[in-house]
Amino acid sequence: MEGKKVNLFFVLIAFTLGLTLLKHIDLKNLTLKDPVLDILYLVVFAISIYLLIKDYKKRS
After folding, report:
1. Domain range spanning residue 50?
2. From CA 39, how far away is CA 32, in angstroms rounded?
3. How far apart are CA 8 and CA 46, in angstroms?
4. CA 8 from chain center: how many Å?
5. For residue 35, which phi and psi values (nearest 5 degrees)?
6. Is 3 contained in some domain?
7. Contact present, 34 and 24 (Cβ < 8 Å)
8. Strand ranges (DSSP E) for the chain?
9. What is this structure's pTM?
């Protein structure tokens, strides 16, 4: 029986953007280091997570 596999490309993108967002978001003051760039990071992060889950469900 073959196990489910994840797309490594989207995992690397999501991991990298997640770490970058954690570094750029100041939770104490609820501010962003560079708001425009961080919003772009957040959008791409959400898209990569969505595509990762969508691809994972499709392979089952």
Report:
1. 8-58
2. 9
3. 16
4. 12
5. -55, -45
6. no
7. yes
8. 25-26, 31-32
9. 0.80
